Amino acid sequence: MTPVGELRASIPLALGTYGMNIFETYIISVLGNLVPVIAILWILEPISKFLMNRSSLANRFFTWLFKHTRRKYSKRFERYESFALIGFVGIPLPVTGGWTGALIAFVFGIPPKKALLHIFAGVLIAGLIVTIICKTVGHIKFIIAG
């Protein structure tokens, strides 16, 4: 599972190249997408605090990142917090996915348990969209070629 591909790559690969069962593909892809998300959600804060305490450069960077991002986007994000995170993760485009959703949750200070629920919902939606597209495009190719 790569940060760019996530389930947007694993589902088409499993269905098209390996001919795996659709349900097996979906479950494995969703779970595989969530494993790194869980690690990211619970590891980023301790790592950032450790670095901020040990390095003035890291302290300046994280302080700037949190202040800048929260100042610029907090009003919009706070209004739609759960829907924003679910929607961001649920749209299967490059740079939108579980990994990036976990980074966003970290920057906005969303507690890991709450963030995981929203990211999980978004990953389920993205998985459904990618699976439907893969199966639909496969049938369209078959009809055109056949």
Short description:
With 146 residues, the chain is an all-alpha fold. It is 84% helix and 0% strand.
Largest sheet: none
**Terminal residue distance:** 34 Å
- In total, the number of domains comes to 1
- Coarse shape: elongated
Transmembrane segments: 26-44, 80-109, 115-134
Protein name: Ligand-binding protein SH3
Pfam families: Sm_multidrug_ex
Keywords: Membrane, Transmembrane, Transmembrane helix
Write up what this structure looks like.
The chain crosses the membrane at residues 26-44, 80-109, 115-134. Keywords: Membrane, Transmembrane, Transmembrane helix. It is a single chain. With 146 residues, the chain is mostly helical. The chain has one domain (6-145). The chain contains 6 helices and no strands. The protein has helices spanning 6-17, 22-54, 56-79, 81-90, 98-107, 112-145. The longest helix is centred in the last third of the chain and has 34 residues, at 112-145. The relative contact order is 0.16. Residues 142-146 have low confidence and may be disordered.
